[in-house]
Amino acid sequence: MKAENKHSKIISAATKVFAKKGFFTARISDIAKEAKVADGTIYLYFNNKYDILLSVFEEEVGKIVEKTDKLLSSEEDPKKMLEIFTIQHLMAMKKNKNLAEVIQIELRQTNKVIKDYRNNKFSEYTGIIANIIKKGQETGIYKADIKADIAKRAYFGALDEVSRVWNASLETHYTVEEIADQLLTMFLTGILHKPAENTP
Amino acid sequence: MKAENKHSKIISAATKVFAKKGFFTARISDIAKEAKVADGTIYLYFNNKYDILLSVFEEEVGKIVEKTDKLLSSEEDPKKMLEIFTIQHLMAMKKNKNLAEVIQIELRQTNKVIKDYRNNKFSEYTGIIANIIKKGQETGIYKADIKADIAKRAYFGALDEVSRVWNASLETHYTVEEIADQLLTMFLTGILHKPAENTP
Amino acid sequence: MKAENKHSKIISAATKVFAKKGFFTARISDIAKEAKVADGTIYLYFNNKYDILLSVFEEEVGKIVEKTDKLLSSEEDPKKMLEIFTIQHLMAMKKNKNLAEVIQIELRQTNKVIKDYRNNKFSEYTGIIANIIKKGQETGIYKADIKADIAKRAYFGALDEVSRVWNASLETHYTVEEIADQLLTMFLTGILHKPAENTP
Amino acid sequence: MKAENKHSKIISAATKVFAKKGFFTARISDIAKEAKVADGTIYLYFNNKYDILLSVFEEEVGKIVEKTDKLLSSEEDPKKMLEIFTIQHLMAMKKNKNLAEVIQIELRQTNKVIKDYRNNKFSEYTGIIANIIKKGQETGIYKADIKADIAKRAYFGALDEVSRVWNASLETHYTVEEIADQLLTMFLTGILHKPAENTP
DNA sequence: CATGAATGAGCGTTCATTCAT
DNA sequence: TATGAATGAACGCTCATTCAT
User: Fold this and answer.
1) In whole angstroms, what separates CA A93 from the centre of its chain?
2) Which residues contact A147 (CB under 8 A, 6 or more apart)?
C-alpha cells in the first residue's frame, strides 16, 4: 500500500482523510500533511478539492471493479458469482474501511455537484450485479420477473448499509463469512421459512 | 404543506434546501430565503446549522415512525407487516423526496459529528424492521437462523438505495407498488427460481 | 437604591451590566433582563446603547458632583477640602464599584465616539480638584508654581487607578481611610522624608 | 518605524488602529488594510483578534520595561531613578501615542477577559516604581510609612492620566520636561508650600 | 406605554487556491 | 517539480434596533 509516487501518495492520503472527516470537513492541508507534501503540491496533480474526491472514488472503485471482474471471469454459475461478488465486496470494505466511507460520501453527498453518473466506475460496479442477475435469468435459475435494475440497487444498498457498521462507533462482531452467508441466504432464498409454499 | 408557524416553516424550508444542495453546501441564508424569514430568525428557533439538520431528521423520521407504528398496530401477520412497512416507506420517500435525501446526508455524512445513534429516531425506525423479523421468527414463518440485526440493516439499505433513484437525475419509471413487490419478493422468497431446491 | 420608575431602573441595571461585562460586551438584552423590562422598553427611554452609557455616566457622576459640592460648601481650608474630596471619592467608588468601572470604560474606551468633553459632568468633577488647588494657591498654602490643570489630572489619575483594585480579582486589604491617608500624604507633602531640605 | 516582517507590520498597524478606534470598534480588515496585508494573513501570525491586542500590549510594554530597566541600571539615587522613570514614561507615550491608548484600553476594558495579571509585562512595569520606592525607603530618603503598592498605583495612575491628554482632542501645550517636573514636584515634595510646617 | 418576535447589517474567522521563489 | 506564505471570498452567527400587537 506504500505509495511510490506523489499522485498515489496523495490519493491514499485523501482516502484516509475523507473517510475520517468527510469531504467537506476535510481540509486540503490535512491531506497534504497526511501525504507529507506541501499544500501547493496537491494542485500539481489535481485541479481542485473535488477532483481529488472524484479521483479517489474512480481509482479505488476502479481497482475493485477490476479485481471483481477478474474473480468472476472464471466462474459461470450465477449463484456462485453472486457469492463471489458479496464476499469480495465485504472484504474490500473491511480491508479498506476508509474507502467504504468515501463511497458513502461520494454517492450521497457530492453527487449533487456532478449529476451525470452514467459513465462512471460506480455504475460499472453495480452493473456487475445486474449482469449476474441477467445471466441467472437467462440460465433460468433466477426468477424471470425480477427487474435487474431494481435488484442491483437493492442488493448494493443492502451490502453498503451492512458495511457501514464497520465504521460506526460500535464494532460488529460478525465475520465477513457470516454476513455474506446471511445476505446470500436472504437474497437468494428469502427470509420465509418455506418460501415455496408462500407463492402457490 | 404550508407551515403555519415559523418553526415548521423553517423545518420544511431546510428539508428542501438540504435535499437540494446538501448540508455543507446549503447556506443559512438559503434556508431563510426559502422560509421567507430573516437569517437571524432561524436562530430564534435553532441553536445552529447542525441543529437544524438534526431537527429535520428527528422530527421527520419521528413522524414516519409514528405513522408506521400506527399502521402496523392493527396487523398481526409478519409477512403483511413487512409489506406495510415497505409500502409506507416508499410512499413516504416518494411524497417527501427531500426527506429521503436528508436521511442519506444525515446518516452518512454528518454522523461523524454526532457519534451516538443508539437513542434516536433512526434506530427506532430500523428497530421496527428488526421487530417484525423477530415476530416472524417466533411465529415460525421466518427462518430462525436469520440475524435480525443484520437483516434490518440489509433491508433498510435496500429500501434506502432504491429510494435514492427518485432524487437522482434519471427518474424511475416504476410505481411504488412495483418496487415494493420486487423488494418483498426478493426479501421474502429470494431471487432463486426454485429456492427450496437449492438448499436441500 | 430601589428604582421606582423605569428610567432609573434601567440606569442602575445598565450600570451593573456595563461594569460587569464592559460596554461592548454587554448586550441590551442583558440590561433589559437585569432591569426586568422588555428589550424594546429600553428604547422608550434611551435613543441607543451608547446613550445609555452616557446617561449612566452623566447621571451618576452628576450625583457625585452634587454630593461633593455640598460637602465642600461648608469648608474653607483647601487642605481639608482635598481630604474631603479624596475620602468622598474613594467611598463613592467603594460603595458603587460598578460605577467605578463605568467611569473607567467611559473615560478610556468610548471617548473615541464622543470627542468633546468640555461640557460634561466629568470635567465638572475634575474641575473641583482644580478649584481646590487654585484656592489653595490663592491663600498661599499650595505651591504657586503647580499647574492646576496638570495637578487635577494627576490626582484624579492616582485616585482612579487606586480605585481600580477594588474591581480587580485580588481584593485590596486597605480601608478607605488608609488609602486616603496615603494619597493625601503623597500629594500634600510628597514621599521625600525631609522634603523641606530638597527645595532650598 | 517601518516594519520589515509581517509580524511587526501587523503589530504596529494594530497598535495604530486599536488606538484610533478602540479594540471593539476596530475591525480585523482595518488592521489588515493598515498593515497592507490580506485579512487572512493576520491569522497566520495571531490566533484571534484578542491575541493581537495582547501581543501589542505585551510586546510594546515589554520594550518599555526593557528600556527603562537599562536606563535605571546605572543609577543608584532613588530620587534620580524616579525622575528617569517619569521622563522615560512620558517620552515613550508621547513618541508612541497609540501605545498610550492601547494601554488604557487593555488595562480597563479587556481585563474582563483575562483576569490574571500577576505575571505580565504591566505588572513588571509598575513593579519598577514599587522597587524604586522600596529602595528609597531602605536608604532612608523616602518616607518609611508610604505603602509601596499603593504608591506605585497612585503614581502610575497619575502618569497615565496625564498622558491621556496627548491623545484627546485638545492638545497639551506642555513639554515632557514641564510635565515631568510638575509630577516629580508633587510626588516628591507635595503640593504644600511649606510641607514641613504642616505636619508638626 | 410595554412587549418581544423579527429583522438584517456587520464581522471574525476559515480555507481552497495561487504564485513567487 | 516543489514549496508554503499569502490571499480574499465566503459564511455562520450575533445583537442593536424596530414595530405590530
Assistant:
1) 7
2) B174, B178, B182
Q: How far is the CA of A12 from the C1' of F2 (A)?
A: 19
Residue A3 lies in a domain: no
Looking at the 3D structure of chain C, how many domains does it have? 1
Is A18 within the bounds of a domain? no
How does C78-94 read in b/e, with b if 16+ C-beta sit within 10 Å?
A: bbebbbbbbbbbbebbe
The 10s digit of each residue's pLDDT in B78-107 is 999 999 999 999 999 888 878 877 877 776
Mean per-residue pLDDT pooled into runs of 10, chain D (200 residues): 75 92 92 97 96 89 94 95 96 84 70 54 90 94 92 94 67 84 93 53
Best to test chain B binding among A186, A188, A197, A198 (most B CBs inside 10 Å): A186
- Identify whether the C-beta of residue A48 lies closer than 8 Å to the C-beta of residue A40: no
Q: Other C-beta atoms within 10 Å of A148: how many?
A: 19
Distance A191 CA to E20 C1' (A): 66
Q: Say if residues D102 and D15 touch (Cβ distance below 8 Å).
A: yes
- The answer to whether A4 CB sits below 7 Å from nucleic acid chain F is no
pLDDT band at B197 (very low <50, low <70, confident <90, very high): very low
Asked if D138 and C130 touch (Cβ cutoff 8 Å), the reply is no
Q: Give the residue carrying C-alpha cell 452518512.
A: B108
Chain A residues whose beta carbon lies within 8 Å of the beta carbon of residue B174:
147, 150
Q: What is the largest CA-CA distance in chain A?
A: 67
- A12's CB contacts (< 8 A; 6+ apart) are A1, A3, A35
Residues of B within 8 A of A141 (CB-CB) are: 192-193
Q: Is residue B27 part of a domain?
A: no
Rounded to whole angstroms, the Cα distance separating C179 from C87 reads 9
What are B142's strand-pairing partners?
A192
- Whether D182 contacts C146, CB under 8 Å: yes
Burial readout B108-141 (b: 16 or more C-beta within 10 A, e: otherwise):
bbbbeeeeeeeebbbebbbebbbebbbbbbeeeb
Q: Is residue C128 part of a domain?
A: yes
Nearest chain C residue to D134, by CA: C191
Residues of chain C with pLDDT under 50: 1-3, 115-118, 169-170, 195-200
**pTM for this predicted structure:** 0.85
Average pLDDT per run of 10 along chain A, which is 200 residues long?
75 91 92 97 96 89 94 95 96 84 70 54 91 94 92 94 68 84 93 54
CATH number at C97 reads 1.10.357.10
Nucleotide in closest CA–C1' contact with B41: E6
Domain holding D143, by residue range, is 54-189
